[in-house]
Design a protein that fits this description.
The chain has 18 helices and 17 strands. It is an alpha/beta fold. The protein starts with a strand and ends with a helix. One of its GO terms (cellular component) is mitochondrial outer membrane.
């Protein structure tokens, strides 16, 4: 069976009947499409008649919004799919307009059109497929050689759950009052509104939030995207996509699902953003988590002489496959955690390194837990080169750095027995950039030479993976002698706590030490693999084992390339 990169799923079954059939329909679609799946809702459309069907408006009711949530929730089980429910024909009662009077361009033109429409005998009936293809191409920009597939009876009827078909869907918008609300109740439209978020790794919960906002807005939607100070409290902020990348993904999604709207995507730099200051806005879409923030926005508006916004509180999507230490909701934080241990960029080719040896550079800010990760890698079979130990060897009397350091800094840095007093030397260079550069210009090339000698020793011992454990790996330029940089990240507050506890320093001294190093964000930008020791030791162990297993899978290919 052919697999297509992009597809259009046309759903024709009435929503109440369709809801319980949705999981097998999505599973069938996921077998045929592996990247972008557009969904077009046209309940009640007849593909088996003589007349060519036309797109018609679908009343925006609470049932429609609930179905959109149900579909995105179900799509979360098929994470390889980028599902996008097209909203052009879903309209609020006050704004019924001609639907799709021109062909709508899509970012990923569908290569195949699918439908849940049921033929009488369940066959791939050609006239129905032709009707489907004509309908799809009259609505959307599709690939010239468009294929079509009738999913029925592949998704079957025997897989239906036993609950009655008329059971109400879970509510997307939390009711503002305890009064019962009919699923068929129309949704009120507004001219202009707002929605905000981080929108990192745009996922299905984001898409529910954005889709509700797109249905409610008739003219303009202001989208605030968190940036700068609002990102500091996020879990694993070093792994957040850059602002520009998040905006690009957001913009493509929004223009795809409702091109008739004007979108104003702006950086969100404070908790209120445009929602607190724009007098033309009428509504704000929030999640269960950010509802209190929405209330604060309204208080802020009232204090500044502006009307309150209508607040639409969206229920969170549950993550049915969340792992240990992950939230039970669909969350960008969980997606960032799942990145830990993965290869983020292609490895470096290092033909000058010993043949058959693959070298990792392990780094991280002070207190990040490099030593514990190095020990875990050693237990898995890696040969560890500790740059601190090499530094001790270099400083020792008769060592390669001993005489140059004494000549540069004088004999008053020596103990009575002639060894270098590293505390005195440290105090001499701390806070003095010129003196520090003098020291590193001596030490870093010496340590690099010793590390290369250790690599050769690793080869003689039959090792295939070597790890250079070095806090200053990138500052020293040693990334030029490794295939991959592996970085350990933790929040700075946790690093300060660990340094104070481990080294007996004051908080100010610990912070001063961190400020003299590259930040976690700067390290990650140059890294191939990122790990974190923020959680319990067994969680770190699983991360390291995952990273090691993935490394083993790419070693033969890398060696083949290298050789």
């Amino acid at each position: 069976m052919a697999v297509f990169r992009s597809g259009l799923l046309v759903l024709t079954t009435p929503l109440a009947t369709l809801a319980p059939r949705l999981p097998p329909i999505l599973t069938s679609a996921a077998r045929l499409v592996n990247h972008t799946l557009y969904v077009h809702l046209q309940p009640g459309m007849e593909l088996g008649g003589p007349a060519q069907p036309q797109a018609s408006p679908v009343q925006a009711t609470f049932e429609v919004l609930d179905f959109i949530t149900l579909l995105y929730s179900g799509a979360d089980l098929h994470r390889q799919l980028d599902v996008r429910i097209l909203l052009t024909n879903i309209q609020t009662k006050s704004t019924f307009l001609p639907v799709l009077t021109s062909v709508q361009n899509l970012a990923h033109p569908p290569e195949v059109v699918l439908t849940d429409f049921q033929t009488l005998d369940g066959s791939q009936y050609n006239p129905v497929k032709q009707q489907l293809e004509r309908y799809a191409t009259s609505c959307y920009s599709c690939c010239p050689q468009l294929s079509s597939v009738l999913l029925y009876p592949d998704y079957g009827t025997g897989e239906l759950p036993v609950e009655p078909l008329h059971a109400p869907l879970p509510s997307t918008i939390r009711p503002a009052s305890p009064v019962a609300r009919s699923p068929k109740q129309p949704v009120r439209g507004h001219h202009r509104g707002a929605v905000g978020g981080t929108f990192d790794r745009l996922h299905n919960a984001h898409k529910v939030l954005l889709s509700v906002a797109c249905v409610l807005a008739q003219e303009q939607l202001v989208v605030g995207v968190a940036d700068k100070d609002l990102l500091k409290s996020k879990l694993l902020p070093e792994l957040l996509q850059p602002y520009g990348e998040r905006v690009d993904h957001l913009s493509e999604f929004l223009v795809d699902v409702k091109p008739s709207l004007t979108f104003d995507i702006v950086p969100l730099l404070d908790p209120y953003g445009p929602a607190g200051s724009d007098p033309t806005l009428e509504f704000l879409v929030v999640s269960e988590e950010t509802y209190r923030g929405g209330m604060a926005v309204n208080r802020f508006r009232l204090e500044n002489g502006k009307d309150e916004l209508a607040l639409y509180q969206i229920q969170l999507l549950k993550d049915q496959s969340h792992g240990e230490n992950e939230e039970d909701k669909v969350s960008s934080s969980s997606f960032r955690q799942r990145v830990l241990g993965n290869l983020l960029q292609p490895p470096n080719k290092r033909p000058e390194l010993p043949s058959g040896l693959y070298v990792l550079g392990l780094t991280g800010i002070s207190g990040s837990g490099k030593s514990s990760v190095a020990q875990r890698l050693k237990n898995l079979g890696a040969y560890i080169i500790d740059s601190d130990h090499l530094g001790h060897r270099a400083y020792a009397p008769g060592g390669p750095a001993y005489q140059p350091v004494v000549e540069a800094f004088g004999t008053d840095i020596l103990h009575k027995d002639g060894t270098i007093n590293r505390k005195v030397l440290g105090s001499r260079v701390f806070g003095n950039k010129k003196q520090l550069k003098t020291l590193t210009d001596i030490m870093w090339p010496v340590i690099a030479k010793l590390a290369r000698e250790e690599m050769n020793l690793a080869v003689t011992k039959g090792k295939t993976v070597c790890v250079i454990d070095a806090a200053m790996l990138l500052e020293a330029g040693w990334q030029n002698m490794v295939h991959e940089v592996w970085t350990i990240v933790i929040p700075e507050t946790e690093a300060v706590r660990r340094i104070v506890e481990r080294d007996g320093l004051s908080e100010a001294a610990a912070q001063s030490r961190l400020q003299s190093q590259m930040s976690g964000q700067q390290l990650v930008e140059q890294s191939h693999v990122v790990l974190s020791t923020l959680w319990e030791p067994q969680v770190t162990q699983r991360q390291v084992e995952k990273a090691w297993t993935l490394l083993q899978k790419r070693l033969p290919k890398t060696h083949q390339t290298k050789n």
